[in-house]
Specification:
Blueprint (H helix, E strand, L loop, with lengths): L1 E3 L5 H12 L9 H5 L4 H9 L4 E6 L6 E8 L7 E7 L8 H8 L8 E3 L4 H6 L1 H5 L3 E3 L1 H4 L8
Length: 148
């Protein structure tokens, strides 16, 4: 079951995003600040953008959260996936594919993404599973009303 993110889901999304992104090579936040939650307001900002949508994959109960996707639908171009996360016990079971499908993102077609993780660099999965995806963090960093 995939549903829109609720207020009760936000801690799962913020914690999952922040903890799984912690080891990326793209961040310059010092580790002591990271452990204090320095990236939490950043995640909240992406989730709160006017065009951003966050969907949560649930298990058999609403309390079981398997993963999430935060994205902006295609608008004057391609979709922007800010973050796709699947909790460890649910990886390899099609959760990521289901979240992408629910977001209307076909991994074989072009789309942009704004965050890379340690795992995506080590496994080079993006190139194999989404060959036309483009890492484009600068486009995601602007609010909709800001000129680019």
């Amino acid at each position: 079951m995939i549903d829109p993110c609720t207020t009760a889901d936000r801690p799962f999304v913020i914690s999952g995003w922040s903890s799984s992104y912690r080891m990326t090579r793209d961040s310059t936040i010092p580790m002591p600040m990271w452990s204090e939650g320095a990236y939490h307001p950043v995640v909240d900002w992406y989730m709160s953008k006017k065009r951003s949508i966050t969907l949560v994959s649930r298990g058999s109960t609403t309390e079981t959260r398997r993963g999430f996707i935060c994205y902006e639908p295609a608008h004057r171009g391609t979709a922007m996936v800010h973050y796709l996360y699947v909790a460890e016990p649910y990886r390899g079971h099609g959760v990521a594919r289901a979240l992408l499908a629910a977001a209307g993102v076909d991994p074989s077609e072009p789309f942009d993404y704004s965050h890379r993780t340690k795992a995506s660099w080590e496994l080079i999965e993006v190139a194999k599973k989404a060959p036309r995806a483009k890492y484009n963090p600068i486009a995601a960093r602007y609010a909709e009303e800001q000129p680019r």
